[in-house]
């Protein structure tokens, strides 16, 4: 959409022209069914690949100085505690579905594919425009992926990683021939503007990845480890009544550092790699202090840990794809690079996996 600024990403090799998409269905299509349904056998494939990535943010950039004035603090107070110098915030008439669709279009263009090649749309979000319908079918309609399967995934800040694992499994099993994985959140609508613990941190944005079967060109998705434990103490929560995120900062910091560190080691071992063999670490941009603490605990060189939170803030499920786009625009994603992606979110949920970039 014109009102959203795209974060550009270019794939190294263009995809072959996509075949027209057809739905995979069980049983014989019924007369009068909506759309064209074609029976086809399930096909096992090589590991799923990311063929393109893209991102989009609202038009309005807000510096930390503006937030600081409202909160009655110094700008340096915000930057020191969060690492955020600027972020993008949605206007009242902005739509999450349209923002997600803008990111999806950028990813499709990056992959050299038309929306007709997509038969599955997954949107990871906790801020859909309405309680119902979900964002995914709206996004599928906006981009022209007519008849595609579409559903939302709720795993807070781990949402994009959870959706990526789900899409990879669908593609590898042959149940999908092309999937769009989108992380999109408008956290400003779930943030108390007077809460110092969240108002300076959270922001709005969307990022997307096109997932296709091998052996097509693209970045190979390795196994993705996902885990959870119940947040019985309500350390990060938002009620239906208030619809505002409340967070115990210190406890969230401790858990995020612990779990992202542990799952990083586990994901590297699962991939048969040492940490020093991984070229880039793209974590959920929760807080600059969390990123720094994870890097220090694992002994990671700071130049190998991607940081985009200073310019985009914490956009929840959108941070990983936005950070991937940002890393490639800055020349950090090299062909053949081994990239570990990891996240920790409310719930609690967390996970990590390794992608071999191409």
Automatic annotation (TrEMBL):
Domain Beta-ketoacyl-[acyl-carrier-protein] synthase III C-terminal: 269-357
TM stretches of this protein: none
Entry keyword set: Acyltransferase, Cytoplasm, Fatty acid biosynthesis, Fatty acid metabolism, Lipid biosynthesis, Lipid metabolism, Transferase
Biological process (GO), any one: fatty acid biosynthetic process
Zinc among keywords: no
Pathway participation: Lipid metabolism
SUPFAM superfamilies reported for this sequence: Thiolase-like
Residues covered by the Beta-ketoacyl-[acyl-carrier-protein] synthase III N-terminal domain: 151-228
Keyword Cytoplasm set for record: yes
Highest taxon of source: Bacteria
MF GO annotations: 3-oxoacyl-[acyl-carrier-protein] synthase activity
InterPro entries: ACP_syn_III_C (IPR013747), ACP_syn_III_N (IPR013751), FabH (IPR004655), Thiolase-like (IPR016039)
Family: Belongs to the thiolase-like superfamily. FabH family.
Entry protein name: 3-oxoacyl-[acyl-carrier-protein] synthase III
Lineage: Bacteria, Bacillati, Actinomycetota, Thermoleophilia, Thermoleophilales
